[in-house]
């Protein structure tokens, strides 16, 4: 283990961030490295618990005490080997994961958790810098051909695993470049796209073919793809955005979060021409939705020099500490401040938008009412409007960041007859198989809008299940938390 008394001697030190004023002037990543000496101390805080609850918290089953111990001993290469056994892309989770492992860390019962997420970033960046991350094409090919639809984290993880098992993998992506929400949703200040390009180049060198700009369904068709390949992996995400159904929605100045973020990502990395309708510069901005997507919109609006930004959440603010019914090691439902919220803007809670008002077709005002949670004995909690609590906000740009309702499935159902769940996601069994033989599904498309770490975990497990189906005997791919066989 690290240092037996490490967690007593050393407090948790989060990774430093760039100065707020400086980082608002550009789009570069804002989190800085801990550095090897501090990383060693932070890894040394890990107690190597007899029952490491962090494993349970991590959807990938990462071998957390093992890589912490290796970092504490200065064995960085070993740490990378341990980490990459269970995590296909630690450079993504090390930057972007909300770290359910840290919420479940035993230290978090009464003190600060081990800095597990940052450790993943320190280890993976060290590995890239030292040249330890190399293309590893499979030693032999099976002769089986697999198509993956979608190149977000789920599609990338599934493709990497299926390729490692020796299958010949082609990834179909409708966008101009691969990466899914990693490229077009998440802003550069959280993930610089060079990090994504570096990984995709490795995957290409391993033999995976990316066919970008191909919207399966609109072009080739799902049925043709299924007939052409031995297996079909669906990883199309869940991009259908929740709508705001109020009078005035049609006004100019009301945009969906993904249109807003995608535009900025194209401007930053692809040199696209800025579109004034999707720019916050000089505008009074309101973001509806208090979650991560809303927070990314806030950081984007601040960098675009908005006159003001308010992030509005429908639900009341959560408590500052865990409520009684929300004990460790469950995910803590507490008030959080994201790096974007730290940078500026206002936050408002318990506000329900009633209508939008405009002049000459342009959005000018948002009318909202305060709500509160009422609990009747035995009944489910419900939101109730507070009489006389109307509030009017001046607004030029309203960004809708109220979540996603599921994947686009029209063509999929029409051409393949794939069954859907009652929530409108692609229905899969415990082995990620859809209702159509040889067609598997992973990530947000089957799970509903979720997290990168779940997309990776599903992608890996779905690849294992497909490999088993293709080979007919046993899979060479590992399951959750298990060592690789290759
Ligand atoms: C703004 C934003 C910020 C987020 N930030 C975080 C974060 O910080 N941390 C975190 O853990 N999670 C975050 N998430 C959630 C996370 O990004 C998703 O859970 C994850 O990307 C899902 O991966 P996926 O591969 O299933 O889908 P996606 O990433 O959505 O990828 C699906 C891909 O499939 C392609 N596709 C769809 N249909 C077709 C078709 N017919 N033909 C070809 N290609 C197709 C799409 O173009 C897309 O590239 C965020 C989400 C958003 C929207
Ligand atoms: S639960 Fe926390 S302290 Fe225990 S092994 Fe996991 S990371 Fe280390």
UniProtKB/TrEMBL annotation:
InterPro entries the UniProt entry points to: DPD_II, FAD/NAD-bd_sf, FAD/NAD-binding_dom, Glut_synth_ssu1, Glutamate_Synthase, Helical_ferredxn
Protein name: Glutamate synthase subunit beta
Residue ranges occupied by any Dihydroprymidine dehydrogenase domain in the UniProt entry: 25-131
A molecular function GO annotation: oxidoreductase activity, acting on the CH-NH2 group of donors, NAD or NADP as acceptor
PANTHER family assigned to the protein according to its UniProt record, in alphabetical order: GLUTAMATE SYNTHASE [NADPH] SMALL CHAIN
Keywords: Amino-acid biosynthesis, Glutamate biosynthesis, Oxidoreductase
Pathway field: Amino-acid biosynthesis
FAD/NAD(P)-binding domain ranges (all copies): 145-459
